[in-house]
Amino acid sequence: MATTSLPRAASRGGSFLVESCTPEDIFSPAELTDDQKLIGQTAEDFIRNEVVPFIPDLELHKAGLMPQLLKKAGEIGLLGGGVPEEYGGAGLDKVSSVQLAEKLSAYASFGVSHGGHSGIGTLPIVFFGTTEQKKKYLPLLATGEKLAAYCLSEPQAGSDAQNSRTRAVLSPDGRSWILNGQKMWITNGGFADVYIVFAKVDGEKFSCFIVERGFPGFSAGAEEKKMGLKGSSTTAIFFENCQVPKENLLHEIGRGHIVAFNILNSGRFSLGAYCTGGAKNTLETASKYAKERFAFGKPIGDFGLIREKLAEMAIRIFAVESMIYRSAGLMDLAIAAAGEDADKSQQSMKVFEEYAIESSISKVYGSELLDFVVDEAVQIFGGYGFHEDYPVARAYRDSRVNRIFEGTNEINRLLIIQMLMKRATSGALPLMQAGAKLREEILAGPSFEETPSGAWADEERILAGVKKAFLLAAGAALEKYRDRLADHQEIVAGLSDIVMQCYAIESSLRRVQKAEAARRPESSSGATPVMGDAARVFLHDGADRVEVGARNVLAAVLEGDMLRTQLAVLRRFLKRGPVDTVAMRERVCAAVQARDRYPFEGR
Ligand SMILES: Cc1cc2nc3c(=O)[nH]c(=O)nc-3n(C[C@H](O)[C@H](O)[C@H](O)COP(=O)(O)OP(=O)(O)OC[C@H]3O[C@@H](n4cnc5c(N)ncnc54)[C@H](O)[C@@H]3O)c2cc1C
Description:
Order of helices and strands: HHHHHHHEEEEEEEEHEEHHHHHHHHHHH
Bound molecules: flavin-adenine dinucleotide
Structural class: alpha+beta
Number of helices: 19
């Protein structure tokens, strides 16, 4: 476990639900430093020059090619982002890591292989390794001289990972661990050198080990025949009386779940960034095609229904990007606030734990964004989108697994509410107090004070309203089910969707406000009109989504007069004027088509 505590100055994970923030409180992509941009540019150049030309060979699994490219990436410092400088890594801040992940995902199979090595494969040693383990492995992993993999899943244990059957017992001479069992679906399984392996000591105590490919009794299975990510390696791993030196136990016996959960927190956060990068790339491809393809005598990009798709892709990317950079900024702030003397690795792990709710949101929202974007891209390509010669077919297949690994989206939806409730009951998050305050407000009736004004008045009301809608629906659900709420998964997932909307809505609104203030301080609106359009569409559609979600939860847990009253309160919370989202989407599409790419990059 982490030994350092989180600095008080940093805003707490999940606090966006109960606190208001100002535009100055959030990090926006417009604030990327030259160094952070350079990291993104280096990664982009690497993918374009070193990886893209080899995609046909990679898709056919040309032997040795993916590890060769990973090692090349290591030579120019693209693998050691999470490794502290003292062990040969770059010790990157979280914002830089997001830049890196976004750009490396231009070829999804490379992005996943990179994440399997640099993220879930390397970070367990960074966070939990002894000094000797760090000295032995990290310099080699940071440069790509050795490649890593993370072995948690088993044939019968995926979501339920602690149901592991892989066993470890101490050898009779007490010098090694003897592992027996099988792992399944291991990214980089076919070529990695170092494997982070979870197994139960004496069949009971879930623990973690560092296993090397050459250890006796270790073997990797054949490549799985996957729907997508065909350029990545995914194999089973077998342990038959596999001998692992005693000192290769990672962390403590029986504490493997702590390693697994902490690594998944970081993996989930990064996955959202990989997905955002993939979505931007696909939007670019779709926008270009919409200009080149003619139907009825004009480019299909001139048709309103195609323009609406391009706009909606950009709008949703904007929302997810706003959330992810905000979260990365929060994490960097918390790490910086711990001071120069703090152990950065421990602090890094601690912030992933603190912002685990935000990381699950990044994972769920990012993967669903990418699925939406690739699906619409296939539609824009028409029949050609269904043909393997065109890039969107591959993007469509590659996207699908993001909703499955790093904890399925169902599991992550459940986790978001579970973590919120845990924080509320431990006192880390004043959720109950916020609920009580809202009940007082409802009893007091409509208030006419503090109505927001200015260009974003309606949207400020939406933001306040969606948070209240969550408290209203969650309060009703908790009152009915109390500590049995987790048994009602449909309700929990409904609440989780509202939580995600709250974060997305606030992050989008504050980012556009920050951009406006930066560009034309004397004016309250109009400085970034198209970004404003994107944010406004997202907010108004988001309010609709929250209203439907909250209504469904209320209808499931209340009845009669109480239901009618609460529905009226919900309507009052989310009261808003109509907006012309058709015209706004048209302007967003024009911005996409003007540059044939996502128009809000770095803004
Ligand atoms: C390409 C690929 C790469 C992968 N890479 C790795 C890797 O590097 N390392 C590794 O350890 N694993 C890896 N995995 C495994 C991955 O993490 C698991 O597939 C994932 O965790 C889901 O487990 P499962 O496949 O056993 O599905 P299951 O757990 O059987 O789930 C099946 C369905 O049931 C649902 N479900 C399960 N439990 C619940 C519940 N309590 N409530 C509601 N719904 C539930 C799930 O959401 C899902 O929809 C990879 C998988 C793939 C496909």
